[in-house]
Structure formats: structure tokens, C-alpha cells
Amino acid sequence: MLAMMAFVLRRLLWLAPVLFFVAVVTFLLMHAVPGGPWDSSGRPVSSTLERQLDAKYGLDEPLWRQFLTFSGNAIQGDLGISFQLQGRSVSGIIVDGLGVTAVLGLFALVFAVVVGVSLGVLAALKQNTLVDYLSVTFATLGASTPSFVLGILLIVVFGVQLGWLPVFGWEQKWWLLPDPRQAILPTITLGMLPAAYLARVTRAAVVEVLQQDYVRTAEAKGLRERSILMRHVARNASIPILTVAGPLAASLVTGSFIVETVFGIPGIGKQFVTSVFQRDYGVIMGVTLFYAAVIVVANLMVDMMYSVVDPRIRT
Amino acid sequence: MDPSIGSYYGNTYYTTIVEGGAELSQAVDADEGTIESLRQALAVRALDDHTLQVTLIQPTPTFNLQMSLWPTAALRQDVIESHGDIANTVWTEAGNLVASGPFRLAAWDHGERIVLERNPNFWDQDMRPTLERIVFSIIQDENTAYAAYQSGGLDMAPVPLASLRGLSDDPELRRVAQATTVAIVFNQTHPPFDTLNARESVCQAIDRETLVNEVQQGLGNPTTAWLPPGLLPYYDAERGQGLVFDPDSVQVSGSDPKPPADFTSSVELTYFNTDPNPTRAEFLQGQWKQNLGLSVDLEPLDGAAFFEAFFGGDYDLTFIGFTQDYHHPQNWLLLWTEDGALNTGGYSNPEYDAAVESALAADDPQEAVRLWQRAEGVLIDEDVALCALFNDETAWLVKPYVQDLLMTGADGIPGDFFYWQTAIIER
Predict the structure, then answer these.
(1) Mean pLDDT, chain A, as a whole number?
(2) Among A168, B264, B324, B359, which residue's CB has the most CB atoms within a 10 Å radius?
(3) Sign of dihedral through CA atoms B52, B57, B59, B61?
(4) How many Cβ contacts (< 8 angstroms) between chains A and B?
């Protein structure tokens, strides 16, 4: 237990240099791109007005000093204010969008795990049958269809042709939860790639475990199939599955940029895309750092779960 | 006009006509005492609760038009200031915004939707809106908006250009010509566009009919004039006739070639990378290659980068669209004077500036028409400062139960000038 806590602590300490590195790279890239926050309106801004705005938001300082100011404030939890939605704080914008993005991401993760793992297990148990082939076809299609194509396809079929489901929006009805009808299409769109990926990895992992000696031993002992699956196969096959879960969490985060834009969902992903086009520096930095922290923590949780399923990793 | 407000339009539209406006707007670096005295000197006075007195530099026929634009909408200063710094936008949020229009802002879920409700206190009883509520859904993907319309989620939506062909017979399709001109702008400080010959050749090498029919899917009308055809009596149908597509006259290697312009240096076409601009740019690139033998590199930029490049004069060739804010050639032609708002390519001809100046000062309406036409003639026919391509058109789908939606050529969203009379009849 002590070793575990030391492990977690060590990993959490790594968060600081990771975030610092992400901050430096984002900051430099953001300022290297031509065009500033006052250019995106498409109207002529006089040079005097631009100077005035730059001075007001500290953009007239040299870059290194701007970065120091930003870092100093960020350490104290102040991510600054948005240039485009003046008067709104970056943290406020993140908190507003987070509820939506997190719920959508969670739905998609549940969809991916349920669909992906069941298909993978089913395919492995019925190796080289029609079920297997269908599952592999699904995995290949799901992994190779970009989400904006799948999204529009689902919209046209279920929204327009059949008229069963609304095609855009995300109204929070019960606290953070939306109207379930609005959630179905974006959830499938966002969850499809991870589901396909999980199906493939699960199938491979289960097939490999099924060929192990200990499974044959268990069968020879006369254990019931269900108990073999739960005790021996599931536990050992879950390690490679968990390995991909970290990157999958990241793909849910980054994938939601597109899904939120296609379905008009007011989450952080959409906010982030908008802020990049508007050169809303404060929001770009805040959201990027937030995403980086989410990914680091997601990977840490995966590593912690490793040690639960595989005692060897604890040492 | 006050530099502390930082208004985009104050400088463009009002400082040049109101006495004391230019002095105040230019006093950015002055101390607060000087600015305050310039504020006092600005010739705008509230004589009583219902009377505003504005003293103009010279008689200005467009004054009424300009006063009806959004920058002069009446707002309560004390209400704005009660929400903190005026430069913040907190006062524009739903619940904070106090305005005087036929509708009021009931909700604004950023990036999601805007809800307007009928204003029961609207001052003009004859123009009380029929609609009780208008919901604007903010959808970035135009295909999603189109799908939402088809599935009944929206009452009106713009048509994506790619879907337009299939809808030509649809009774729900509404097409309205826009007071918009899309034109190529030359950077006259970059060779070869410092020569009239080069600008002329590049302009004559574009088949506008094909541009509109193929790239625009038939949306819009080819033009060689800067002023839109609806701007009567100022519009001159003969404008730019010398710039009409003529593959023979621009053939460098033809039997009787014009003295060829010097196209040896590499030329870039910079454009705002948003649909359908990439297809437009590729079409232009192909036309110049095919008809002129001129190789042009494409430089697509996103909004912020494009406008920085455009307003900074950092381009060889670009194309832009302009939609009028008010119905007068002044709005169109002031843009291209020496310090005009869109003149970022270094166009400079004292004769043009003098023509605009005299048109602004003209007392007699007949004379004014002649002088504005003269100014456009210098801009287009004599100098080829611009190469007009087409006048744009909007294409929207509107459900049959939306009645009396009056669409104009200058709408932001169709009908937005006249929502008060739009109604929903029984579905």
C-alpha cells in the first residue's frame, strides 16, 4: 500500500513538468501563428485601437514576460479572462463546458466498453465463424470512418430520413444530463472509434489467453466454462485492454472537438475550436492545460488499475 | 467616436461627418483633460429628453441612413455602467441588456442559441411584432443546420452550396440577390500589379459566367462593376466593360498579342480559407494558368491570419466580398480612397480621391449621381484598382407556414430588418 502511494505521488509530481512543457509549447505555437485576437472580426482595427487593446490585455509586453505573468497567475488558479467573451473568466468557461463534455465522454466511454468488449469477447469465443467476421468488419469500418462523416451519416439517416432523433443541440434537462434523444447520435459518433478499437484489442487478447496452458488446465480440471471465463480469461485478457484505455480516454477528449461542432453541442471541445480561430489566447492556454491534466490523470488511473489486475506491476 | 469606446464603426462612418468627430477619435494618446475637452467640443447635444442635435461638417445626404445603423442605437449609459467596465461585455448578456427594439433578448446560451421575445413596451404601436418568440440556433456546421431544417427542427436555414442544385424547383427555396460584390484586390505595391497592364490582363482572364455557374452552383450574378445593380440610379451597367472575359485579348502567345505584362515573378493568391472560398481560389488559379499562362500559388489562411494579412497589406492578390451597410455609393466608394478602410493594397490616385470628395460635396442630386459615377469610373475603368467578379445571392429554405418574411439585399439573417411583420400561420 505504501509502495502504491509512493507510486501515485511520484506520478503526480510528474504532472508539474508535463504541464509546464505543454504550456511553453502551446504558448509559443499560439504566438507564432499569424493573426491576433483583434484580427478575427474581419473589420479594420486602427493601429491606435490595436495598441490600446494590447496594452489593456498586457499583449504589448515581451513574450517571456507575458508567459511569466500567465504562469504566475495560473499557479494561483487564475487562468485569466477571455478576449472574445470579455468579462468571462477562462475557468468559468471551462467549468460551463466541462459538464457537457464530461457527460458526453462518459456516455461514449460506456458505449465503447459495452459494445467493444462484448463484440471482442464474442468474436474470440466464436473464432472464424460468421459472428467473428461480422465483428471484425464492424471494427474495421468503425476505425476507418472519420467522426464527421459518421456524424453526418447518422444525422441524415436517423434525423432526416427516419425522423426519429433530433439532429443537434444538448439541452441540460436534469442537472447535467441532456434529453436522452439528443444524446444518442453524438454518443454513437464519439464512441464508435474507441468501440471498434476495443473490439479488436479484446478479441486478440481473449484469443491469446484462451490458448494458454492454464486455461487448458482449468478445462482439464473440469471447471465450468463460465468460471474459466471470469476467473482466468477475463482477468488476464484485461491487461492489454486496459493498456489501450488510456489513449482511448484521450481520443474521447480530442474526438469531441469534431463531434461537438457537428452536433452543435456547447462543450469545451467546441469552445476550444472557436478559441483557436479567434486567437482567444487565454482560453487556448486554459483549455489545453486542462486537457493535458485530464490525460495525465487518465493514464495514471490506468496504471493504478494495472496493479490491481496484475500484482507483478506493483513492485 | 470616443477613443475610449474603441468602436470599429465610429471611425468609419461618423467621424468624417460630425463636427469635432475626427479630432476626438484621433486623440488616443492625449491626456484625459484634453480628451474631455474634445468630448465637450463634439457637436452632438441632447437638447431635451426627445431631441438630439448633431452639427455636420457639410450637408450630408446620407445622414439619415447612417443614423439608422446599429452603432447609433440608443442605450442607457447608467444601465451599462452598472455592470462594470464598459469595455467588458457583461452588459450585453441576457437580463442585463436594455435596448429599445421590437424584440428583447430573453436568453443567450453562448455558442448554443439566442432567444428573442416580443417587447411589449415597444414604442411604435404600428410595428409591434406578430411573432412572440424567435429562437436562433447557433450551428457551426451548415450541413447539420440543413439536416435540422429537413427534419423539422428549424423553420428556416441556409442551403449549403453543394446541396443547391437539387433544390432548384423546391418551393421552400428562397433566393435573394445581395447588395454584395465579390472582387479581386491587387496589391499595387507588389510587382507586377503596380502596372495597369498586369491588373487588366489578370482581370480579363477570368470567365465569370463559369465561375458563377460551376463554382457558385448558379448562385449570384457575374459583374464587372463595384457598385451592385440595385444601387440605382448610381449603378452603371456599362461599368468595367473593358474587363469582361476575353481569352483572345489576353493570350500572350496569340496571333495579335497585347504587350505582355511582366509575369515572371511568382504570385500568391491569399484568401480566407472558409467554404466555398477554396473552390473559388482553385478556379481562379486554373483560369490564370489556362488563359494567361500565369502560375499562381494559393495561400489559404484562417480568419485571424487572413484579416491580419489583408489589413496589413501582406498579399499579392486576394479576393473579398463587401455587403453594404447603407444604401448609398458613399458606403462603397469611400472604402477605396487613399485612407479608405478596405484600401490595403496601396491604391492611390489623387484624381479618385478628388472625385469622391466632390461627390460628397455635391448639392444637386443629379450632379451627385454624375460625380459618384465618375468616381467609380476612375476606380474600375481607368485604374482597375479592383476586379469585380460577381454579386452574391443568398439561398435559404423557409417553411411554408412562415408568412410575410421580407428578405432584403442587406440582411444578416434573412428578414432581420423586418421581423416585426413576419408571422407563423397554422402548420
Answers:
(1) 84
(2) A168
(3) negative
(4) 128
